[in-house]
Amino acid sequence: MSVMPAPTPSWTASVQGWRLWVALLRLMGRLLALALQPASYRGAAWPRVAQHLVTAALPALWWYAVLSALFGQVVIRIVVVTAQGYGLTQYAVEAVVRVLVLELLPLAAALFVLLRVMLARGAELRRLRREGRLPLELRDGLEPWRLHVLPRALGGAFAVVLLTMVSCILACVLTYLNLYGFSPWAWPSYTRAVGQIFNPAVTLIFSLKTLGFALAVGVVPLAAMFDGRSHSDVRALVRTAAVLLAVELLGLVGNYY
């Protein structure tokens, strides 16, 4: 009678990783279902949601705005000086908006929220699960999910959208100041140039990409509650980065192919 060989460590790790991705998809479905229920914003749940919305975004808003402005100023100045050196100043606005506003700043905001907020919140949910205060299935208790999981997911998603909007607005203002100074006379032509870049297709792709980043950062790190292995924070970081990269690639394909 033949004996089945024992599974290798790599095979076991692959199975565990696959199960975690399946759990992640289930988690996303559960959170979307909870987010669409009015009961998730009533009673004791609403103060928790409001608390996480505020604590995820506002404490770092001002200094993130300063950092993004400094980073944007460096990139804008490099692009503007290079364009002027080659006599291509008329293309500087499009280059800055397409590179900085459409691509770099949304990704930077998502990574910032992931590293500063969501990895810690995923660890908090893992601790609540170990303490028995958070069931893994909705049927075992809706209220803990509404009090602990949904507010953290909404807070992370809101922070990504807010920081992206603030940094992109600052980048557009800095672009104008670098090109035209404080003169108001170039404002109509500048807004027309930016408006031509943000045609309906680009605007739709930019909005969907930002929402995709927000959903990835708000949900994927929380899947650490299903992961009982060591180094769960590192695994959550890698998983979220992979999803962000996939969303970014889809946005690039939509914009340029």
UniProtKB/TrEMBL annotation:
State if Transmembrane is listed as a keyword. yes
What keywords is this UniProt entry annotated with?
A: Membrane, Transmembrane, Transmembrane helix
User: Does the record carry S-adenosyl-L-methionine as a key word?
Assistant: no
> Which chain positions lie within coiled-coil regions?
none
Q: Where are the transmembrane segments?
A: 20-40, 61-83, 95-119, 153-177, 197-224, 236-256
What does the entry list under GO cellular component?
Answer: ATP-binding cassette (ABC) transporter complex
Quote the Pfam families the UniProt record gives.
MlaE
What protein name is recorded for this chain? Permease MlaE
- The scientific name of the source species is Tepidimonas alkaliphilus
The record lists the lineage as: Bacteria, Pseudomonadati, Pseudomonadota, Betaproteobacteria, Burkholderiales
